# Entry
Amino acid sequence: MGALDDVAHRASGCEKCRLAKGRTKVVFGAGNPSADLMFVGEAPGFHEDRQGLPFVGAAGALLTNLLGGIELTREQVYIANVLKCRPPGNRDPMPDEVEACSPYLVEQIRLIDPRVICTLGNFATQLLLGRKVGISRVRGQRFDVRGRILVPTFHPAAILRGGRPGAGMAEMEEDFRMLAKLLGEAAPAPPSAPVEDPEQLGLFS
Ligand code: URA
# Structure
């Protein structure tokens, strides 16, 4: 069993927070375990909880389409969430749930070792960036965080339920084109020493 399977196995029996009680299945993550590009969403919804797979509902269909737009399939990337269990009624994650669950995400990032991480929406962005900042302010920007490139974009579910149909879609497409461009660039040489940036002490610290 690989190291990532090991972590998945541990997560599958996790009872570190209240969400263990209501879940059908733990949604650990799916895709290429050595992907260059990793997506991090918020938490499983109804369909994900039933199937044990991330982004399989309507938001997942949009994510799959956006990937198709840059000629990528779900199998080529890795898709995970901040929380591995569904919050009741799809409510927002609570701070203690994020705290209990984030070690799994840290391990996933360490083992998959993606060059580029795309955070989907506020929760993943704030957690990985280590800053309380609104997604509209930072989407489509490139952040260099401890040897990885982080690109925040909107959460696909926010596009689907947006006030104006399709609002934010053009921006998301633009952000995905940026991801494609970054993946096409040659990987930079690793820095000789870690760069300390007190502004960015998120999951990578
Ligand atoms: N929304 C998320 O954030 N993650 C999923 O897996 C599905 C919907």
